[in-house]
Design brief:
Number of strands: 10
Oligomer: single chain
Shape: extended
Largest sheet: 4 strands, mixed
Structural class: alpha+beta
Strand content: 5-15%
Distance between the termini: 101 Å
Helix content: 40-55%
Number of helices: 23
Radius of gyration: 36 Å
């Protein structure tokens, strides 16, 4: 069999992700803050791209390029500026302070004000961490240098919740010290603020707070030591039977324990509130809803006139420089088009969501409809992946509040009669039922299922349990409250 080389021509189709297409897709899924960062980065790296001035800062149209490049200069006479003479007499009661303040140039006046005063916006308050607060107390304590060294290592092993994560044998092996000495220093640290810090278990944390808080209820210690599981399940009857006291006394002790902090270190949590800036605003104008994009703070981009004129032949440049400018010009033009296409796509998707969820905008979450990405994609004639990218990390301001675009897409729960009900509406109904229940006789999951069936919603008990956990609601046994008017029953 002979081997030979042949050439053949074949026409095929394949999808190639060009760098420009990749950039457009990347810009589409960015949030508003991420888009602003991307624009600023492009302005720094691409000299052909520049930010246009705002409407208030626009130059008059009568100004030409020469006037921009060469601003008017001060007229000189014999090499000296023209002097301004004052012919009128100045009275003795003339307000020189006001006069001089008006004559001071604005730039100099602003510099003077900045030197004389400071802006409170430039000041930041440092929130001490838990370890910093404990180390400060350690330095103020009456301990020896060796004990302070041991205490510093102990504080270094305390987590953000205030619990000691290392055992005494581990600390003893690290420091080459006896465990008794380390435990003695640990006892000192457990007296620091906040109360309960340095504990190794929840039981120890509660006992420390009971002791330092001088709580005199005799049931607190035995309950915190042996009956935390019954306390979690609100099984007050079992606790009362074991301790041979009334259920009412157990309830009073449980109320005191509930006021203790199981995580004493969380008061030093540095998490700050993050405010959401909506990408889309929806306003009701008459019977219709108007959709507008939030472009406040986003720079308006354009091509720099100097480089545009350079390519037109008005300026002599080398071929290498010309090729570089042409490449950067294409990149800038594509970047501007990608941003415009992004804004247009977001508007179309937002408009479609508003049309589908008009009942929700009018009446609230109870009227939220089940919606899928495919429905919106077919409405705006786009692919589902494009709609998914548009709805990622973007928020919409509506008359009902600020919601992430993903919120409007949810599955449907079958109704006994009629169309499906949105899962978010079912969650809201479950939340309302739990909030309105009798605290002494909370609703079980099966009872919630029965009530939802009366409201024309067919749902399984396990689905109710799943939604309840997603809402952060406890089970019925843990939501039960005892009546304050209940008679004391001595077991």
């Amino acid at each position: 069999m002979a081997l030979e080389i042949k050439q053949s021509l074949r026409l095929t189709q394949q999808l190639i992700m060009t760098p420009q297409l990749q950039q457009a897709i990347k810009l589409l899924q960015l949030s508003r803050l991420e888009l602003l960062a991307a624009i600023n980065q492009e302005l720094e790296t691409n000299p052909v791209l520049e930010e246009t001035l705002s409407d208030d800062d626009q130059e008059p149209e009568s100004w030409d390029t020469a006037a921009e490049d060469h601003p008017p200069e001060l007229t000189l006479t014999d090499g000296q500026p023209n002097e301004v003479t004052v012919e009128s007499q100045v009275g003795e009661d003339f307000d020189w302070d006001s006069y001089l303040e008006d004559k001071v140039p604005p730039s100099h006046r602003q510099e003077q004000e900045q030197r004389e005063s400071f802006s409170l916006e430039n000041l930041t308050s440092e929130v001490p961490s838990l370890k910093t607060h404990l180390l400060w107390q350690l330095q103020m304590a009456t301990l020896t240098d060796t004990e302070k060294y041991i205490g510093a290592l102990i504080i270094g092993n305390i987590d953000e919740d205030g619990y000691l994560q290392a055992s005494l044998p581990e600390l003893a092996a690290e420091l080459h010290r006896p465990e008794a000495q380390i435990e003695q220093v640990l006892k000192k640290i457990q007296e620091f603020e906040p109360m309960g810090v340095g504990a190794r278990t929840l039981e120890e944390c509660l006992l420390i707070q009971i002791e330092l808080g001088h709580l005199d209820n005799p049931l607190l210690r035995p309950i915190a030591t042996n009956y935390l599981k019954h306390l979690e399940n609100r099984n007050y009857g079992a606790i009362a039977k074991e301790l041979k006291v009334s259920i009412d006394e157990v309830a009073q002790a449980a109320k005191l324990i509930s006021q203790l902090d199981p995580k004493p270190g969380r008061s030093f949590d540095k998490l700050e509130t993050c405010y959401v800036s909506p990408d889309i605003f929806v306003y009701k104008m008459g019977d219709e809803y108007e959709v507008t994009l939030n472009e406040d703070g986003l720079p308006r981009l354009r091509i720099n006139a100097y480089y545009r004129n350079a390519l037109s032949g008005q300026t002599k440049i080398s071929e290498e420089t010309k090729n570089y400018i042409q490449g950067r010009l294409k990149s800038a033009v594509w970047f501007i088009k990608s941003i415009h296409q992004r804004q247009k796509t977001i508007y179309r998707v937002a408009k479609s969501i508003v049309n589908f969820q008009k009942d929700f905008l009018d009446h609230g979450i109870a009227h939220l409809k089940p919606l899928t990405l495919r429905q919106v994609a077919e409405d705006v004639q786009m692919h589902e992946s494009t709609v998914s990218r548009v709805t990622s990390n973007k928020y919409m301001y509506t008359p009902q509040g600020v919601f992430e675009l993903k919120f409007f897409f949810n599955s449907g729960i079958n109704a006994i009669q009629g169309d499906q009900v949105a899962s978010e509406s079912v969650k809201d109904k479950i939340r309302q039922l739990v909030l309105a229940e009798d605290a002494q006789n909370p609703l079980s999951d099966q009872e919630i299922v029965n009530l939802l069936k009366k409201a024309n919603i067919s749902i399984a008990r396990r689905t109710v349990a799943k939604y309840r956990e997603m809402l952060g609601l406890l089970s019925s046994s843990k939501r039960r409250r005892l009546s304050s008017a209940k008679k004391k029953l001595v077991i």
